[in-house]
């Protein structure tokens, strides 16, 4: 159970790092630029602990898929990114893929 909590924490830091990339404006803003490296450093450090108890394929699929889904939603809500049918279908396919990987584990 602890590995699932740690995996959730890694997803939060991965999303924060990715949002920091957007906010850094090409590494020209100091605080968001530093936050990229801090967030990803924490994320990957904790992810190594997750991998002690969880299969690599399952952990990575959930980490990357959930992060992608979250970033897509946040991009639409906070950064005014477009929402269209293809994006919705593509995100739904990511979710279906996550469910498939989890069920196969």
Automatic annotation (TrEMBL):
Keyword Transmembrane helix assigned: yes
**Keywords for this protein:** Cell membrane, Membrane, Transmembrane, Transmembrane helix, Transport
Transmembrane stretches, start-end: 33-51, 58-79, 85-103
Question: Which GO MF terms are attached to this record?
Answer: transmembrane transporter activity
Q: Keyword Iron-sulfur: yes or no?
A: no
Gene3D superfamilies, alphabetically?
1.10.3730.20
- Source taxon at top rank: Bacteria
Q: Which GO terms of the cellular component aspect does the record hold?
A: plasma membrane
Which SUPFAM superfamilies does the record match to this protein?
A: Multidrug resistance efflux transporter EmrE (SSF103481)
* Pfam families hit by this protein: Multi_Drug_Res
Q: Where in the cell is it found?
A: Cell membrane
Q: How does it sit in the membrane?
A: Multi-pass membrane protein
Family statement drawn from the similarity comment of this UniProt entry: Belongs to the drug/metabolite transporter (DMT) superfamily. Small multidrug resistance (SMR) (TC 2.A.7.1) family.
* PANTHER family (alphabetical): MULTIDRUG TRANSPORTER EMRE, SMR FAMILY PROTON-DEPENDENT DRUG EFFLUX TRANSPORTER SUGE
Name recorded for this polypeptide = Multidrug efflux SMR transporter
| Phylogenetic lineage | Bacteria, Bacillati, Bacillota, Bacilli, Bacillales
